[in-house]
Design brief:
The chain is mostly helical and about 60 residues long. It has a domain of about 40 residues. The chain is about 65% helix and about 0% strand. Helix 1 packs antiparallel against helix 2. It starts with 11 loop residues before the first helix and ends with a helix.
Amino acid sequence: MLKDHPATADSPETTTAFLAALTGHWQRNARKPAPPGAPGLRAYQHRAAAAGLALVGYRLRA
């Protein structure tokens, strides 16, 4: 689990920052054209970004 990883175990803020960065990566890439041979990739990235936004929002409210 991310909360148990040595890089983030002692800092919930670091975990939140990592999740925010990963969410931004998914959002940015989801807006690109679909690559050949991976027709479902952008839809997956849209879903991952939405889930990431919800999780980051939850962590910031907690």
